Amino acid sequence: EAGVTQSPTHLIKTRGQQATLRCSPISGHTSVYWYQQALGLGLQFLLWYDEGEERNRGNFPPRFSGRQFPNYSSELNVNALELEDSALYLCASSVLAGVGTDTQYFGPGTRLTVL
Amino acid sequence: AQTVTQSQPEMSVQEAETVTLSCTYDTSENNYYLFWYKQPPSRQMILVIRQEAYKQQNATENRFSVNFQKAAKSFSLKISDSQLGDTAMYFCAFMTNFGNEKLTFGTGTRLTIIP
After folding, report:
1. Residues of B in contact with A56 (CB under 8 A)
2. What is the pLDDT at residue B29?
């Protein structure tokens, strides 16, 4: 069974540009989560999507946004990039949301570098 | 708000020895889930073990076991017969139930297994 996949592996942008990161969940998983792992800040929850809807959002500005497609894959968009957005962005998926809590399985991450 | 504390930034142990990683958390919830994830240098976040707060029995997965003390809000991970492949960052994580399914992570413990 294929795990969570993310693309691209690495992404280099300049300040002010927009970045788009993609995630495909494990087959059968409907929930997708995004986390940011920045140096010195640890792992922080960004967004949670389930059945195409944004269910929860972490303490991040509105320029961090995303969506979930009918096939449950997801995009994370970061607008007006700032230097401090440089981080590893991890996507995770789980089976069911809101019906008990199921384990989140992570992808390999996208390393975003903002110059 | 929930917090997760890992007080050991780095640890090292000889191969084949046993090591225990500490984790404490703070919450007012009664139903929740606790996890240990490992993140090797490849950066893929891998689930090690999961514990449901309503279960009194400590979870075990092969060489990995936890000591879950609910009253003390403590959730330590014991790795027996440590192997070189156990070298990684280990993160303790907390999740509440009922539709607020974001993981709150500790700051991690960098574990090095010495040959």
Report:
1. 100-102
2. 86
